[in-house]
Amino acid sequence: MMSSIPSPIPVLSPLRMQRHPRAVVALMVVLLFAGGGLMMHAESQIQVLGLLAAFLAVFAIADRTPLGQEISAMCGDYGGFANGVAFVCALSLIAVFHGEHYTLLMLATVALFSTACIALNLQLAFAGIANFAGAAFFVLGSYTAAVLTAYTEVPHLMILMVAGLVTGATGVILLLPVLRTRGHYAALVTIAFGLLLRSLLEVNDTLGGPQGMKIKGFSAFGLDFNLISSIGPWDVSFYLPYAVLSISIFAVAFTLIRRIERSWIGIALDTVRCDETAASVFGLSIARWKVVAFLIGNAVIGVAGALYGMMNGFVTPNGSGLGDSLLMLSIIVLGGLGNFWGAVVAAMVILVIPEKLQAIQEYRLLIFALLVLAILLFRPSGILPRPIRDLSRFIGRPGADA
Amino acid sequence: MSAPLLTCGGLTMRFDGLVALDGLDIEVAKGETVGLVGPNGSGKTTFFNVVTGLYKPSAGSVLLDARDLFAKPPQMIGRAGVARTFQRSRLMLDQSVFDNIVVGALCRLDLGLLTNLFRRRRWSDELGLMFERARALAQRFNPVIADRLFQPAGSFTMIDRRRIEICRALIGTPRLLLLDEPSAGMTHDETRQLMDDLLAFRQEMPDLAVILVEHEMDVIRRVSDRCVVLNFGRKIFEGSFDALIANPDVQTAYLGVSQ
Lengths: 402, 259
Fold this sequence. Notes:
Chain A is an all-alpha fold. Chain A is 68% helix and 3% strand. Chain A folds into two domains: 19-96; 108-392, ABC transporter involved in vitamin B12 uptake, BtuC (Orthogonal Bundle). Chain A has helices at residues 15-19, 21-41, 45-64, 66-77, 79-96, 101-126, 134-151, 156-175, 185-203, 239-261, 264-274, 276-281, 286-312, 322-335, 340-351, 353-356, 358-361, 364-378; strands at 213-214, 219-220, 223-224, 230-231, 234-235, 314-315. In chain A, a hairpin with a 2-residue loop joins strand 4 (230-231) and strand 5 (234-235). Chain B is α/β, with parallel strands linked by helices. Chain B is built from eleven helices and ten strands. In chain B, the strands form two sheets. Chain B has a six-stranded mixed sheet with strand order 6-7-8-3-9-10, with helices on both faces. In chain B, strand 4 and strand 5 form a beta hairpin. The longest helix of chain B is centred in the middle third of the chain and has 22 residues, at 120-141. Chains A and B meet through helix 10, helix 11 and helix 12 of A and helix 2, helix 3, helix 4 and helix 5 of B.
């Protein structure tokens, strides 16, 4: 009843803002992306610290003040629009930094790791499967690309898909035997898989042993990405097409998993996670939904891993350890379980900031640990908590959002 | 009377040494409300868990419409038309009321990846349909719930949560509804309201069979057509409520042997 009474302090929420919600949302997204772009571009420590402070300030305002909360709510209400603007902004960033290898590499890396983290969100935040082998599946995707580019002439777009199939199928094979069990067996199996995969890669000579394998650069549509040095009159970095493709893969994965969340399947997954007893009483097959989430999640991770490997030109067993998998999980915990943009923000925090702040590089793991602890203590639902699923906006509007 | 909807014959459930159900025979007809009573630990909830497929019985059979419920995997039982509520509320408190209610019908909805991901128009049509049904159901219990279908279930009072659970059980249009102590943890007033709710929807769904577990004898008296009393997993009484009150075996089970 209280909420229907107009707020007595309308000073901070000018009517004009409410009349043009899309403009406000677009402005916010553009500002955030401009900040993120500057962060990836920044070279002096002062700049980085300044930007960090600015982000914290924006976050505090959005979180604590009525105006900020109103704008955040608006961004939520116009989520689909905001996502569209975000995609355009990301492409614009690529255009702005078209010649800078390092910035574009970082952008593509953030996009691909965010993609993997969204997939982990599908598994952990929705279906409740803790996958402690995220990095292992990622690297498995890279190795698939390495083997296929080295020994076959499979078109590279197809390689991305095959990598997804390989990681997806591997995941299902791991999960099938423990489907009858409840509790943490699935998590244990993923840990074991990560360790085994790493040892296997290290001792297997055809896969390059500890040195890993070279991977040919990506080429599609008659373009070899590694040879691109100009588009029309502009000199561009060869990372530019990788950045565009990474962002596109991110967008596809984002849309796919968002639609899963906001559909009957999302409700089924949440039910399976929250209460297996209720799920089975109401006729849901727990095994089926766990398999679906695990399969799709790992397939997405594999695709991201394959492109990451092709972009870097090599893959080693190093990135597949338990530590790397834990880092991925801590990204989604930090960002907020079930919140995709939260995962992107956290991926920025974990991947970009240590690169930029040399002072903390040595202590990065220590600082992550403290950060995750602080988040769990003071803001357990993460930087950006998962919003409640509000299907009312889709009634009669199938195209809304996502 | 026509053939019963639910027929349990010689239903036995053993957990290692403990016999929770011991050769139980229960029949429930279409449209009938059976009150199931008995002291704590007498097997009432175990009976529900067996009928909903959570436990596989050690012996005996459960037939729904003369078809064996255990011939298929447990999740098929929900699809065959058996729904229940739980003694301790089992809602997803962070999720919206609508999400919680629709769980009861999910297995009848189109859960295909294709429809949910790409044929969004079809999905949205189904969503609209479910929304209307959920709203109509919630409206029957409490208009406040119907108005706040997209608020988290955790923001509701205990009695409203129980109502949401009953809506969840009803939205799949079950043929048999199992209510496990709906009045647990409620005040006298709330219990009375809930009783009125039960009587109201009983009238609107004359074909629905209900088994009601309750300790609140007032609820049993007002709502049930017939009573069954369990003790140590065995049926010790079956008949009308008045006969139940007068039955010496029942008194002994509840109050102990008189000195």
